[in-house]
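Data card: per-record layout.
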Amino acid sequence: MGTTDPAAGKWLGKQVEYPARYSPEVLVAVPRSGNIFFSGYDCWHCYEAGFLTGKGLPVTGILKLVYPADSACLVESKSLKLYLGSFNMHALGQTAREGSALFERRVAADLSRLLDTEVKAFFHRQAGSRPFDFVHYTLLEEMPGMEEVNFTVYREEPALLSDSVRQEPGELRVGSHLLKSNCKITRQPDWGSIYIRLKADTLPAPESLLRYIVSFRNENHFHEEICELAYKRLSDTFHPEILSVTCLYTRRGGIDICPCRANHPDWLPSCLPDPATLTLPAFRQ
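The structure for this 285-residue chain is written out next.
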């Protein structure tokens, strides 16, 4: 999926102190790799977000960020963590509500400027009712007979998808909590869940699809690249009428990254890309 950009390693893997004051200059943009051949969004949940009111009262919540997958760059995760940490002792507004609105606008403006795209931010101070986009998806590893399947490939191998196919039209809505890859820079493990909707004239057998998902285990890519690679392999192999791939990664450093890609905007998750909607986390999150 391309070479590693030097900017990505500015903070990753290094011991860095949090800024003592509001510091948008710590943010780092990393160029995306490859051509855009899908619709999609990157959805980030920042669980360690907060600021002070003008009277010194701490305000905490979950900051949800959403920006389009066709942006030229993505924000590097540790730089975002440092940037959000710079708000910890920063005063915004005289009340929690006023400060929250200012916080959303400031973060959205800083990130939109950095990435040269529209970044939407919503600061959730209460969870409320939380929907989940993948309620009716079947977990591959819980299907009968999966424990009898041999798994031997742990580097991404697209040939696994065509090992066994169904030669009739159909639609799959499946997921797995067995997604694992490694950070491109630090090689730290990234754990997550993947959800796939696929409608095509031929379909992968469930065991072939799970073997393919497991084959990411020793790959070294960013979260967004893993999602896009799975999407491209499925698209190239099955030429689907409907294809949607969403990866919900486990939080690390107080942030989780949830990329979603589809061959038409209608097939994207309905709730996840909405910054004002806080969805239920997947099991791995």
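Known properties of this structure: The chain is about 20% helix and 30% strand. The chain has a mean pLDDT of 93.

See the next section for split statistics.
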